[in-house]
Each structure stands twice: as C-alpha cells, then as structure tokens.
Amino acid sequence: MMRWEHDGRHVPNREWSRFVTAGGLKWHVQVTGQGPVLLLIHGTGASTHSWADLAPLLNQHFTLVMPDLPGHGFTAALHRPDPARVSAALAALMTALELNAEVIVGHSVGAAIAFAMTARGDAAPAALIGLGGALLPFPGMAAKLFPGLARALFVNPLMPAFFSMTTRLQSMPALLQRWTGSSSTPGQVAHYERLFADSGHTGGALALMANWDLDVIEATIEAVNVPVLLLYGERDKTVPPATSRTVAQRLVKGEARGLSGLGHLAHEEAPDRHAQLILDFVRGQGILAAAA
Question: DSSP letter string over 219-265?
C-alpha cells in the first residue's frame, strides 16, 4: 500500500479523506457534500484523484462517497478481487458509513462494479450512470488475451515492481494518450505517475484485472432494472464506444450518449460537461428537485 504520511500529501481534496475498516479491509474513502447519496467508483489503476475536478461540482447537490478500490491507492488489497467479492466489500463499506447509495456512478470497471452491486442486491440505487463502462467482453482475441496476460503478470511477484519501473521509463502523457485516447492535464498526469510508480498500487490493478470476468458482468445486464445512463467518449481507446450503445439496447431503461472529442478519461477531461449531464439525468428520475 502507499503510505499516507508521505504519498497522502498529494491527494486532491484530502480534507475529505478518512480511513474506515469494513469487510476485513482498511479503506481510504472521501466523503463530502449533502443531499442524496451518490457513490463514485473509479476504474482500474485509478484512485479517488479521478474525481478531483468533478466532485466539487456535485457535492453541493449530493453526499458523495468516493473510495479507493481494494489494492488501489491507500485501500488494502482484497484476496481474489472478483466481481462478487469487490461488490460485497463495497457494500460492507457503505454499511460501515451508514449510507445507502441512491445513485451510483462508475467509470470503466467501476461501472461493471455498479452493475454487479445492483444485480446482486448489494446496493439498491434508484439510478446508475456508467462512464466508459467496461460491461462486455473485449472483442476478438483481446477477450481471452487481456485477462490471461494480467493473470500471468499477477502471479509473478516481481511483475508489479517491474511494471512500475517500466512506466517510469516512459512518457506518462504519451502512455495515457495511447491507452485511453484522452488528453490529460499536467496535474492529472502527475497523479497517474505517482500511482504507477508504486508497486503496491500496480499490483492491485493487476490483481483486479486478473480476477475480473466480463462474462459474469455481461450476465448481470438484464438483472438491472433501474434507469441507466451510459456516457462514453467517442475517442475512447480503452473500451469500444459501441459497448455502451449495445448495453443500452439490452437494458430495460437504458440510454447511451457519446461525447465528441473525448477519450476514456472523459470525466477528467470535461468535468463541467459531465456534472451537468449527471444532474440532468438524476433530476429526470425525480431524485433531485428540478433546477430553479
């Protein structure tokens, strides 16, 4: 794990941070705001920093809950972080906080976790919002190659440190652009550089990928009966934009919307635009009062 006394000084909005023990894990979670509870779940390899610019636009309308996922950032690792275990662990965290999520927003694998929590009954939100949601198996050989490669890397105890070292030898802005299709600010790049330089964090990301099964997530789609908004960047190089459109068609109450000029980290690139879309959608479900 990263060390709060050293690495924590770089955490955006650190005044919202707290440490909570739940589900057998010590969690780093940020809580802020007032109103209906909105749970924000980041994607693989990220941390609470992913919401740094979006959260201040939402916390005047919602009580925001933003955890580091197991093995990420400052949260302890979870043995075999598969969909069921991560979903149950997050449910335990929400119970410890004595909060019930009325809306869940998930980015990438975070959207898959939101679907799993809802389908399993670990959460009972009134609405879900996916941002570049990794909700279907990757097309072609990637569907088998990526999880298998992550598993092979994860079981080698030297690989997290090696992976961290190789990222330090490359240009992080170029890596993010190549991996995601997004144009990140220098501040955002610095956060990812610090995270990927830490072998504990990279090990947590590899563990999540190694134990994730998008076939299981795909099977949850029809079990989600609440209104769902799926936003995606039209330049996304991580998750095919067609994924959101396909899933929306399979949902009882699904809507997909593409955002031009943005990549997989669209909410980091355009937080104002995302905040407005989230507010409009939630108000449309009657969860928030209409704007005056």
Answer: HHGGG--S-EEEEEETT-SSS-HHHHHHHHHHSTTEEEEEETT--TT
Looking from the CA of 242 toward its CB, the CA atoms found within 13 Å total 3
User: Residue 243's pLDDT is what?
Assistant: 95
Measured distance CA(258)–CA(242) in Å, rounded: 10
Q: What angle do CA 63, 292, 106 make, to 5 degrees?
A: 35
Helix or strand run (H / E) with residue 25? strand 25-33
- Give CA separation, 7 vs 1, 10, 190, 241, in Å: 10, 6, 12, 34
Structure tokens at 251: 């949902």
Q: How far apart are CA 203 and CA 200, in angstroms?
A: 5
The reported pTM is 0.91
pLDDT per position as a tens digit, 102-140: 999 999 999 999 999 999 999 999 999 999 999 998 764
SS3 116: helix
Kindly report which listed range (199-203, 233-237, 264-268) carries the lowest average pLDDT score. Answer: 199-203
How large is the angle between the packed helices 159-168 and 186-196, nearest 10 degrees? 150
Q: Are 275 and 281 in contact (CB under 8 A)?
A: no
User: How far apart, in whole angstroms, are the C-alpha atoms of residue 214 and residue 136?
Assistant: 6
Distances (CA, A) of 204 to 30, 135, 188, 198: 19, 20, 20, 10
Residue closest to 211 by CA, chosen among 109, 75, 138, 91: 109
**Averaged pLDDT for residues 220-231:** 95
- Give how far Cα 274 sits from Cα of 39, 45, 58, Å: 15, 21, 10
